[in-house]
Amino acid sequence: MDLIDYQKINSNTSNHFWYKARTIAINNFLKQKLKTYSSNRQILEIGCGTGINIATLNKYGIVTGLDINKDSIQIAKELGCKRIIQADVEKYKLEPNSFDTICAFDCLEHIKNDHAALENIYQALKPNGYLFLSAPSYPLLFSSHDIAMMHQRRYSKNDILSKFNKVNFVNTEFYYWNSILLPAIGTVRLIKRLLFMFLRKVDHKSEAVSHSPILNKLLFTILNIENKIIQKKIYLPFGLSTFIIAQKNETKN
To answer: Domains of the chain, with CATH numbers?
Structure first.
């Protein structure tokens, strides 16, 4: 669900430091579990947005995108995405045991009934299939940025892991990401939250903006250092974002 950011930063999300670093993180996680491309591997990306992740997912299997926003889907198709479903994963019944891998990157926080969405995802996975998911961390940091991005919530570690357990996912791995920038960005988010609570006059705007090439490169370098740390199985103690990898158990529904 990156249409707002796509429009705001002049259709150049692929070079924006956050998206560029997140793409590397996503590829690292996929490679860790999926290893190489397989023409027999069916991959679904829920909340595919404008298709920014499709090229990465194509390295590992046959990809289908799903998104509720017709404008995002149109952009994705123009960028070469061939298999896309326009639907709301909370309401659209995915075919049981039909996907080897499902991805939902910064999507779950947009969905009102996230438990129903996770149940739908779970039953659509084949036994031992993987779910790769990312979401924003810390409910305390919910601010005007989240409202502008149409987020329903941010997640604590215990809350999101509890949701996975209730749906019966197994072998769940949890990672924080975007840790180094947390003190600065977290402070800004808290100030915005307090201003909105007491003054009710804060503009609800996405924080995604175009930066100078030097600043963009610096911020990308910081996040990519974290990518390399996580690759070495060093778990960061906090972060603005959460990455989760989980599996469906071996028994079919």
So the answer is: 3-247 (3.40.50.150)
- Name the average pLDDT for the chain: 88
Measured between alpha carbons, how far is 174 from 135 in angstroms, rounded to an integer? 11
DSSP H or E segment with residue 73: helix 70-78
Distance CA(129)–CA(163), nearest Å, equals: 18
For the whole model, what pTM was predicted? 0.89
Mean pLDDT in residue range 217-233: 94
Ramachandran category for residue 138: left, alpha or beta (phi over 0 → left; psi -120 to 50 → alpha): left
- Model confidence pLDDT, tens digit, residues 46-86: 999 889 999 999 999 999 999 999 988 988 888 788 899 99
The residue written with tokens 């896309």 in the block is 84
CA 28/CA 134 separation, integer angstroms: 13
What is the C-alpha to C-alpha distance for residues 116 and 121, in angstroms, rounded to an integer?
9
CA–CA distances in Å: residue 211 to residues 12, 178, 189: 11, 18, 19
Side-by-side strand order, sheet with 125-136:
84-86, 62-67, 42-46, 99-105, 125-136, 241-247, 170-177
Contacts of 214 (CB under 8 A, 6+ apart): none
What's the pLDDT score for residue 165?
A: 96
Q: Dihedral of the CA atoms 6, 8, 11, 12 (nearest 10)?
A: -90
